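Chapter summary example.
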Amino acid sequence: MRTDVVRIEGTDFLTTLTLGAPVGLLALHGGVEGGTAELATEVAARTGATLLTFTQPTGPPAHIPSIRMSDCAPLRTFLSHATLTISLHGHNRRASPRTIYVGGSNRPAARVLAAALADSAFTPVTSLADIPPPLRGLHPENPVNQTRLGGVQLELPVLARTTHPAPTDPEVPPEEVVEGIVAGVGVLMERGGAW
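The structure predicted for these 195 residues follows.
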């Protein structure tokens, strides 16, 4: 495990990188999108996946769009090591408090993760037509799409990211969501790109 402080657009981020299996878990907005870093960390610990999290140790939270975060050394290392990325994000859509939007460029892998989450209390949505455009994760400069096999962007509502109604440090992700993503990562690792 390696930790570094990087500065992006005037904001300091603490990055934690652990190189592991070819499937990589990425949380670009840990702290700002509460529970995403903790969820990625727990899934990586249980699966041996590569892990990279970004948190903000000081200052007011800043949400820098994913497409503007790719020019830093830890993320370049992650993208050169992993072959498939699962990027965890948070959404606060009041109309869909139990919907997990499953975007990203690797649609077969997205369906694998959605199937693994189907038995949870959340509804995974894979149809790009049904995912709000800002949550689709399809931009080619989005880090989720920059590994060799592209990736899956999971947009998680608050209830899928933390078991607490108010922010805590650290956040505690719901076990059913952890188990669902772990199962999906397991299938992706077993199939090695043949989805």
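To summarize the output: The chain has a mean pLDDT of 94.
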